[in-house]
Amino acid sequence: MHWLIFAGLGPPIGLACVFTGIAVYSANPFDGKLVDMILVTAGITAFAYIFGLLPALVSGWAVRQVQIRQLRPEWLWVTLIGTLVGFIFVVAFGAVLEALIPSGLSVFDIRKEAFFVYVPTCLVPTLVCWYLSRHSAGRQSQTP
């Protein structure tokens, strides 16, 4: 159940965070009609799983390790995991993008807006999925 929570809910929650981050940094990011926005969102949801499944599974694995080892305070460890996975994802995505489309910039030239949008894109879903999976961890450890 733990893996289904992270794999199933993490990417769509991350997509909502991306939309929120874009709205914060843009004056009017969605100036189309509501129907157009719904169709675009439905199409983008597939990309949320393509880009978000690996970070969700890595976060899920790391959170499960914290739960198994009963590290306290658990919320602090989960926050660190979400932040670290988000940071690594931003840097790795920047490196892959630079390799595919050379622009003469280094990974360290990533704009700060990317960190303020994409790190919470991993942090928020990690915290939400952890909260939902806390009770699942206790039940899974009791099964033979």
Given the helix and strand composition, which structural class is it?
mainly alpha
Strand share of the residues? under 5%
Whole-number mean pLDDT: 82
Distance between the termini: 16 Å
Largest sheet: none
Q: Radius of gyration, rounded?
A: 17 Å
Question: What's the number of domains?
Answer: 1
Helix content: over 70%
What is the number of helical segments per DSSP (H or I, 4+ residues)? 4
DSSP E strands, number: 0
Anisotropy-based shape: globular
Poorly predicted segments: none
Run of helices and strands = HHHH
Report on the structure:
- The chain is an all-alpha fold and 144 residues long.
- It is 82% helix and 0% strand.
- The protein has one domain (2-142).
- It is built from 4 helices and no strands.
- α2 packs across α3 (74-100) and α3 crosses α4 (112-142).
- The longest helix has 36 residues, at 34-69.
- It starts with a helix and ends with a helix.
Topology, please?
Elements: H1 2-25, H2 34-69, H3 74-100, H4 112-142
Helix pairs in contact: 1-2, 1-4, 2-3, 2-4, 3-4
Keywords: Membrane, Transmembrane, Transmembrane helix
Protein name: Amino acid transporter
Organism: Microvirga flocculans
